[in-house]
Amino acid sequence: MINKSSLNPNLLIAEYAVRGPIVIRAQQLEELGKRIIYCNIGNPQALKQKPLTYIRQMLSLVEYPELMDKQEILKSYPQDIITLAKEFLKKHPHGTGAYTQSAGIPFIKQAVADFIKKRDGIPTNKDYIILTDGASKGVQAALMALLKTPNDGFMIPIPQYPLYSATISLYGGTQIGYYIDETGHWQLNKNILEKSIAKAKAEGINPVAIAVINPGNPTGAILSLENIKMIIEFAKKYSLSILADEVYQENVYDNNVKFHSLAKVMHEVDEKDVSLFSFHSVSKGFLGECGHRGGYTEFRNIPPDVMAELVKLQSISLCANVVGQLATFLMVAPPQPGDDSYDLYVKERDSILSELKTKAGILGRDVNKIPGMSLETPQGAMYAFVKFELPHDRKIAIDKMSEEERIAYEGKRDSDYCMALLEETGICVVPGSGFGQIPGTLHFRTTFLPPKDEIQEFVEKLKNFHITYSNRLADSYK
User: Fold this and answer.
1) pLDDT tens digits, one per residue of 64-116
2) Which residue, 15, 73, 293, 464, could crosslink 134 as a Cys pair with Cβ 3.0–4.6 Å?
3) What are the structural domains, with CATH classification, of the chain?
């Protein structure tokens, strides 16, 4: 019989904080009858966001085409959706239960290419698009393809979405963390990038790619145009591929900023020497279709023979799930003015985005009123990375710790804090150490996906807890 020592050691060291011990404890408490406010993961529909009618009506007809033979049932469907479902099944007569082409259904890939061309005004080729089971599978495929030896390193932002660190560990590569600038609105800092890559090279690591999350997870920040140009120049200087995680591109709440895709900026600066992997997903934005696992990767500055190998890598999994491919199609080809379903689609879309903007504002306003807490109001995405301060035991000489010791020490402090927050209030958030943070700082990540009244309740409970916990900790150090 196997035991833990029988397992791949890379699996044992991989960590994924957003579903870690605190979440497991939250589920246990919920089973015991405690009310939990889940703010640990970007899972909109689990947090009461309603699915778009357009998406679900289309999926129902394609999944069960016999409905289109029942006139009484069809009366509740807009005509444009019925027509679209018939067109889909005409182009893909095998339906949703059969494998597709490895890289995805061709007309859906073309729809993705058209979406990118319309979004950015740049040439796009469907043959350089692969449909994936969510953006995560695209990221994992890119990391797998670029990793040749254990010394190959991937530059990832700190704080980062732990998919990156966990997958790099799982595949046996090396993580090169670069801190993003909290005092500079969470932008990337050129000097920090230079120091990070120099340190990695001095340690014998071979940097092969840099990951950029825009809008940011867990920060909610949106990168400026100039910042993106700097990233492209940096990648070119060091012959790095760029992994552009852009799954929150529809989640922009600050009217003073704008989402700029890496693909568009690379085209504008006429950069042809940097390879780009761009990821998008149906799980975020205003769709929130996490369970359907739909997404795509678009490739730029990739030679044809390399592209063939990437398609081969996808073919090992046969293809992305077909319903996810269909959801991706619906994301990139929404109803247009004049379509029967258009008005309801726009109403539902705008309601979801408006509600998210309101809740981001509530967090930005009210968290900053809590003594010992601060927050850069999220400009986009679905998350806030809250900074907090705790009393310190003066008997512990932090200044004599190594960086690794200090990270471990602060990691225990923020994990203990988040576990106590859960036990005492029912609020489930993720410790900042699960994403990475500058040594000497404490954070937690929260979503603002729960309903508005729960976000207001969250802030009030957080305030009372933080004051009580801090006083209790201070008393224990006397």
Assistant:
1) 888 878 888 888 899 999 999 999 999 998 888 889 989 999 999 999 999 99
2) 293
3) 4-48+347-476 (3.90.1150.10), 95-332 (3.40.640.10)
